[in-house]
Amino acid sequence: MSLNITNIKTSSDGAWQGDNPLNSAFPLLILQTILVLFITRSLAFLLRPLRQPRVIAEILGGILLGPSALGRNKQIFHLVFPSWSTPILESVASIGLLFFLFLVGLELDLASIRQSSRRAFCIALAGISLPFLFAAAVSFILRRSGFDDEVPYGQLLLFLGVSLSITAFPVLARILAELKLLTTQVGQTAMAAAAFNDVVAWILLALAVALAGPSGPSSGPLVSVWILASGLGFVAFMLVVVRRVMEWIAKKCSSPAPERAFADEAYICLTLAGVMASGFMTDLIGIHAIFGAFVFGLTIPKGGEFAGRVMKRIEDFVTGLLLPLYFASSGLKTDVAKIQGAEAWGLLAVVISTACAGKILGTFAVAMMCMMPARESLALGVLMNTKGLVELIVLNIGREKKVLNDEMFAILVLMALFTTFMTTPTVMAIYKPSQTTRRRSHELQDTSQPELRILACIHSSRNVPSLINLIDATTSAAAKPTLHLFAIHLVELTDRSSSIMMVQRARRNGLPFINCFTIPGTSYQIAASFESYCHASRVTVHHSTAISALHSMHEDICHVAEDKRASVIILPFHKQWTMSSGRGCGGEGDGNDDEGVENVGNGWRVVNRRVLETATCSVAVFVDRGFSGGGLDSPEEAAAKKVCVLFFGGADDREALKIGCGMAENPAVSLTVIRFLGDSCDESDEAVLSEAKVNLAAEDEYIEKKVAAKKVVEELVSIVRGKGFQLVVVGRNGAKIGDMEEHQADNPELGTVGDILLASTATGTSLLVIQHHDGKEMKGKESVGECSV
């Protein structure tokens, strides 16, 4: 049944009154949004094992919803995507696109682009110039084949050149993080070159739109000149006047004034209104609304908290809900069936070949001239060939301006899909820095080093005080000069725009305290805390940041541990206890009350388990339940530290005992060693225990317990509760005696004893669970690690 568009209502009267909701605008938009989200998220889940960025799933989802797949069934297609709903869907999608381009401008830091190396600048320039030359050749071929002779050659060349030369900066950043290349020479060069490429691409696109814009009775060369002049004036006004206003607003929002909360709301609303006002102005000029939003994003200062606060307010709604609608609207215009005949498919092959050859060869040649190795140069060329949403924006604008017809539009969309899809597997095949790092680190580990090296992982600034107290308790004053502490801040990489900002700020990952005071928020607090600790003690501290998806975070941790030759990795438990919870228990609680317990996510629990499985050194899981004492301990508070080592037998327990004896050398620690006697004893256990007895100070205690088999767990909990220990050190896979064998662990990463104590003891008792690693087990561990990389 055909509908009169003028009679379309916003909402329906409901099915009970005989009204079809799909004939009303808002219910139909809800159904379309649900369908788009379901398709794109399902494809993203299916493509995750291939390590593909989400943009691939979104482009594919749009194509599947369009005439290429769903549109083959005309009845279903016109039911879900009737022609009258297209302007509504595109309007909502355009709002999402407007704010997404604002986020892109917010991500790009013009100051960092100006500071880029000459090599990155030359590589970016080559990656733009050669594809433009190839685009000229493709445009000539299209002209000879009779492609749309009415389109001026200059307009066609500009749109083809921009589409072939674009590098999708946000997509590239996520691919680099997924492949663990962010901290490599290839990754840093690619990020810097892609940022410069992004800015140049937007300038060229603005030029192309200005030249293609006039199509009415007032069209002519003079109109294009006025559009360009007005556009340049708009950009100058934004970067000179509006930028200073936004700097003042960002400074006001960072001040500790009591009315800051109200001011934040007002200024953020003003900023969002500024996005739409800027879009309206560029649309009025005749360029495109998205350019105004992009330029407005460039005016906001990147160094303070304001940019991150604005981004957090809108990024989930924009990228998660509205932006997929833009991919759907693009897919509705993409009909692969328009590519008919051998000539059209040959043209597709030519476009893909020239797109790859221009970008890869241009980048490869200049990178080789800059003395980069051949493999790295080739990998850099493939990375710079990444396309994404910006490519779709260019193609959609070209289609709107009648520069690209339906056939050429479909060809270029498939080109963008193919070039982005090939990036990850191609780079993985030709460039594998992790294996080189592993070989080099094993060679280094053979040399004898007297210093102690600890790799400590951090989720947030809340982990820092307890970690510093633990390091202080573990090492004596004499051992601190030989201690190297590698503190690594673990940051989850997501599809949010804020992850891109974190990626840019952490491109120098692994270097100690480089520009740490320019990093706002949590990373700044962590870096500042460790620098203060470094000055206050004689410990050498190296702070770095690892930004990665949770499913591969363990690889980063293990690679850093090998590269730094760490003897032990300290992992924070995936639950955190607040201080109020500890005081509430008063040291006598049962530990079963979850009040004051924060679960930072089961994803981090999986990370810990994978590190325990693949690490090539000893691993300690630290359960902090008030060990920080609310902050850094004073000497008086530190003197009260009561530490207990529980010994049942086995390699992990022996390692735990050695760590406990190391703590006993610290005068601020009072150590108690409790050995539970089993039916049999091991010679290695006896040797370690005999040595420990000799080295214990007079104020330390050594206790042996022989407990009935059915009361081991009860006695264990009773001892730990009654003594009021602040830290209990246990082995993860120690010997099991008595009714311990019947215990089903809820937290296998803590082992049997650790899980029993976590569930039964007071909140004020922290746990350190040790897993020993022997050099003889290196081969077995390496095979596990190789499979995970």
UniProtKB/TrEMBL annotation:
Domain (Cation/H+ exchanger transmembrane): residue spans on this chain: 37-427
Domain Cation/H(+) antiporter C-terminal: 642-776
GO cellular component: endomembrane system; membrane
Top-level division of the source organism's lineage: Eukaryota
Topology within the bilayer: Multi-pass membrane protein
Chain ranges passing through the membrane: 25-47, 54-71, 91-108, 120-142, 154-177, 189-211, 223-242, 285-302, 344-366, 409-431
InterPro entries cross-referenced by the UniProt entry: Cation/H_exchanger_TM, CHX17_2nd, CHX17_C, CPA2_transporter, Na+/solute_symporter_sf
Protein name according to UniProt: Cation/H+ exchanger domain-containing protein
Family under the similarity heading: Belongs to the monovalent cation:proton antiporter 2 (CPA2) transporter (TC 2.A.37) family. CHX (TC 2.A.37.4) subfamily.
Molecular function, one GO term: antiporter activity
Keywords: Antiport, Ion transport, Membrane, Potassium, Potassium transport, Transmembrane, Transmembrane helix, Transport
Domain (Cation/H(+) antiporter central) ranges: 483-630
GO BP of this protein: potassium ion transport; proton transmembrane transport; regulation of pH
Organism for this UniProt entry: Linum tenue
Record keyword Protein biosynthesis present: no
Localization: Membrane
Keyword Manganese: no
